[in-house]
Design brief:
By secondary structure, this protein is an alpha/beta fold. It has a single domain, classed as Ribonuclease Z/Hydroxyacylglutathione hydrolase-like (Metallo-beta-lactamase, Chain A). Helices cover 27% and strands 29% of the residues. The chain is built from ten helices and 14 strands. The chain has helices at residues 19-22, 60-65, 74-80, 98-101, 116-122, 130-133, 138-149, 200-205, 215-232, 244-247; strands spanning 6-18, 35-47, 50-54, 69-70, 88-92, 111-115, 153-156, 159-163, 166-170, 179-183, 190-194, 235-238, 249-250, 259-261. Strands 1, 2, 3, 4, 5, 6, 7, 13 and 14 form a nine-stranded mixed beta sheet that branches. Strands 8-9-10-11-12 form a five-stranded mixed beta sheet, with helices on one face. It binds zinc ion (ZN). Zinc ion is lined by residues 95, 97, 174-175, 195.
């Protein structure tokens, strides 16, 4: 049986920053600097009464400490969408940065799928260097470890069908175990790139994002995503681009600007 997901992007936070702060070595391009909006999303995937949440956003406190605006607490955003959090069967995590795994306690019944390389890296000594550690919340990593002790965590890695209709691919680059996801829908396959691609511009103009652990892997991820687009006709959705709110339709019956139908 083919599994086709309905996919909703939930925009719960936002930030305005200089392009020179968002792109790696902006001076390489010889273009003027300027302001750029960066939005924060998580995703809801639904099929036949089953609800999966992909990434869980930042906790408002962790976001505000970093100067991000929380537009809607993810808990309230889910309520706006009419989602019963107790009914969320699985949470899939793309990487362990603070803005992707906050709010795990909102999903008391979910199994949590975590990239093996992410969990290994973020619990290792080297992750304590400030250039890495500033991107995570230690309390959230501890929460994942606690969940694993309760046998609620599935580690995954490489290219793997996590569940029917959802394939995870390890691309790394931005973070040591960064994942992208190919999701089957009623239309073209959807690729949720998460932070492998923050902005469309990274793919269109080959311009890496500023936060990177391995630049070669990041470039290879761009290459692979362009291939997926060409070979599968896949629709690639960047993880933080405000253009998502223009290129996809708002979800009817929800507050304007909050939820967008990707498929
Ligand atoms: Zn990230």
């Amino acid at each position: 049986m083919t599994v086709e997901y309905e996919v909703i992007a939930v925009r719960y936070g936002t930030l305005v920053a200089r392009r020179s702060a968002l792109y790696l070595h902006w001076d390489a391009y010889g273009e003027p600097d300027g302001d750029e909006r960066l939005d924060y999303f998580f995703y809801v995937l639904r099929h036949a009464g089953d609800t999966i949440v992909l990434d869980t956003g930042f906790h408002p406190d962790a976001g505000e400490r970093r100067g991000r605006t929380c537009l809607r607490h993810p808990r309230d955003a889910l309520a706006d969408l009419g989602i019963d959090r107790d009914g969320v069967s699985r949470v899939i995590v793309s990487h362990l940065h603070y803005d992707h795994i906050g709010n795990l306690d909102l999903f008391p019944r979910a199994r949590v799928y975590v990239p093996e390389r992410e969990l290994s890296f973020w619990t290792s000594d080297i992750a304590r260097h400030p250039q890495f550690s500033r991107h995570v919340e230690p309390a959230t990593i501890s929460q994942l470890i606690a969940l694993e002790r309760q046998n609620r965590v599935d580690r995954y890695d490489g290219t793997r069908e996590l569940m029917p209709g959802i394939r995870g691919i390890t691309v790394a680059g931005h973070s040591p175990g960064q994942q992208v996801f190919v999701v089957e829908t009623a239309g073209e396959p959807l690729v949720l790139a998460s932070d492998a691609v923050h902005f469309y511009e990274e793919l269109e103009h080959d311009r890496p994002f500023a936060i990177v652990v391995n630049l070669l892997e990041m470039y290879r991820a761009y290459e692979m995503l362009r291939e997926l687009r060409q070979e599968l006709g896949a629709v690639v959705v960047p993880g933080h681009d405000p253009l998502v709110t223009e290129r996809f339709e708002g979800l009817s019956g929800t507050p304007p600007g909050l939820a967008f139908r990707l498929a």
